[in-house]
Amino acid sequence: MKYIYGIDIGGTFVKLGRFDETGTLLEKWQLPVDASKYAERMAPYVAGAVLVDMERMGISEGEVAGIGIGCPGTIDEKGVIHGAENLQMDQISMTGSMRRFLPMEIRMENDANCAALGEYIFGEGKAYDSMAFLTLGTGVGGGIIASGSLLTGAHRCAAEFGHMQVDEAESTPCSCGRYGCLEQYCSARGITRMSGGFSPVEIFTAMQYIDETTEPLKSAALRTYERFSEKLAKGCALIADVADPAVFVIGGGVSNAGDVVVKRARELYRTFVYPGAKNTEIRISKLKNDAGIYGAAALIGHFSEKNRKV
Amino acid sequence: MKYIYGIDIGGTFVKLGRFDETGTLLEKWQLPVDASKYAERMAPYVAGAVLVDMERMGISEGEVAGIGIGCPGTIDEKGVIHGAENLQMDQISMTGSMRRFLPMEIRMENDANCAALGEYIFGEGKAYDSMAFLTLGTGVGGGIIASGSLLTGAHRCAAEFGHMQVDEAESTPCSCGRYGCLEQYCSARGITRMSGGFSPVEIFTAMQYIDETTEPLKSAALRTYERFSEKLAKGCALIADVADPAVFVIGGGVSNAGDVVVKRARELYRTFVYPGAKNTEIRISKLKNDAGIYGAAALIGHFSEKNRKV
Question: What distance in Å separates the CA atoms of residue A98 and residue A87, rounded to the nearest whole number?
């Protein structure tokens, strides 16, 4: 019996999961992250958490098949992180540092790609041959699975869905400096911005009980929801025009509000997309916050054949 | 010695090429097509052309490794053509009909995908690991090569670049019924529409000799070229945000005007795209009108390893 650790490094928590070789999640837990304090210290922090778990469970080095890690930013072939500014982790060699503590297979991938892989193998994408995954969180990211594997792109920036332009008339700049990026409408931050201060939960809850919702939330919810849906649908249509996935899966914190998140977008998508792809479904993530650790574990384990049963 | 026929069915001509097994084009020729007369008759017409060539060259059935065909529309797994309305070839089983005359391997693919494959293996994409190919002809089509093979999509409509929305303010409908499709600006028809009647050749020639160009062409060329370039750049940026190819190659009749076609678009692309992909080159097709027959032949031959040397 061998174990696999799947780790998802975020701006608020490091999430960890211990899996068996068949991809069954045995235990999961999380540790707080103070983004201002980490950078170089992230590797020993994460490695320490794994070592503590091994000690507690009586797992030897030889019993660990490997450690998969999802992390913000661009991860190059050498396991060096680029541009994860939120975590002050630009130019950090994460796998190299971790191997000093844990001499086993360690693989890294961008966090959104990891979540996509997890959702494809174990979650809502399980019944499909290809998938586009959009994660609507603080920002908007994503991943594409085609021909059974991640489409990472020539510069490792495929599926940067958050920065597709979906509004030509936008006058407020995106964090990237450009205007009209999908992230400006479909991230948690974007929803709060468009609604004049309401949270995504407030907006989506209001939409479910709109007749019992009072002003000013009612108007804000109706207006924001339509705009959010239009941009999400437009983003999906553009993705379909390029990659034509078999299904869209929507994850990230915003998706926790459930089916209402995609209800209107589904209708609009059909009118925006090239007709051949108009029946592609838009679904809500099944694994929710666990998609990342599942996908990270999948970087090590070869779960695809075993788990992808319709 | 075995031969491969690569055939590219278009609205005006059927182009044919006879290749050897190494992918060398031995001879090419073309036959006129009267779109109003074909449909069911296309299969015997094309098969007849191959049989005549075999007879003329003394090639036996056993010496033909196979026949690859590129054709407009969507081609399903059974070789049935859907939606090639220009050729009145909707719901036509091309490969089935051809096999009655030529009992050998016959494979079909969408014409833009074929051209992409040809350009990737033999042309401008040869030095790259992935590629997005845009064909700017009467309409706009394309193909994506990722991980060494065509990305065809779940509904066989990946790389439908012509119908990505790149203008939200457009008031003239596209042939597809929607508004602001890339095809409305970057096809030959689109250029003529934007310029008030000038041909693509007139516009691009004027841009190369703008100081010696007189009104009204001068103003039309300046205005049309900027708009064409902006939309082409925007389309490429959206493709990069989704698929992040290693290179863009621009083919189709419009690209025959040469480097001027992409000169301004290259500059604009850098400002539109996600920064990680801003150095992706936009190049002009090398194989020009022959890309389709090369790609069709590549459906049969396994040329990739042999020919893709930098």
Answer: 17
Q: Residues A292, A294, A299, A302: what is their CA dihedral angle, to the nearest 10 degrees?
A: -160
8 A C-beta contact, residue B112 and residue B291: no
Distance from CA of B187 to the nearest CA of A (A): 17
Total beta-carbon pairs less than 8 A apart between chain A and chain B:
139
Cis peptide before B216 (omega within 30 of 0): yes
Which residues form the domain of A48? 3-114+290-307
B133 in a structural domain:
yes
Among the partner-chain residues A144, A146, A164, the one whose CB lies closest to the CB of B238 is: A164
Q: Does residue A267 sit in the same domain as residue A295?
A: no
State which amino acid sits at residue B305: E
Cross-chain residue pair A160–B241, CB shorter than 8 Å: yes
Judged by CB atoms closer than 8 Å, whether chains meet at A156 and B272 is answered as no
**Are B73 and B217 within one domain?**
no
Structural contact between residues A115 and A290, judged by C-beta atoms closer than 8 angstroms: no
**CB contact A245 to B (< 8 Å):** yes
> The complex's ipTM?
0.91
Contact A4, A65 (CB under 8 A): yes
Taking CB atoms and an 8 Å cutoff, what residues of chain A touch B130? 153-154
Which tokens in the block code for residue A126? 């399980």
* Model confidence pTM above 0.90: yes
Contact check, Cβ <8 Å, B241/A74: no
Q: Which of B159, B178, B242 sits opposite A239 (nearest CB)?
A: B242
Specify if A120 maps to a domain: no
Tens digit of each residue's pLDDT (9 = 90 or more) over B196-242: 999 999 999 999 999 999 999 999 999 999 999 999 999 999 999 99
Judgement on whether residues A235 and A109 belong to the same structural domain of the protein: no
Does A296 lie in the same domain as A243? Answer: no
- For B88-134, what is each residue's pLDDT tens digit? 677 778 888 888 889 999 999 999 999 999 999 999 999 999 999 99
CATH number for the domain including A166? 3.30.420.40
Q: Which of B169, B243, B279 sits opposite A242 (nearest CB)?
A: B243
Q: Is the pLDDT of residue B306 over 50?
A: no
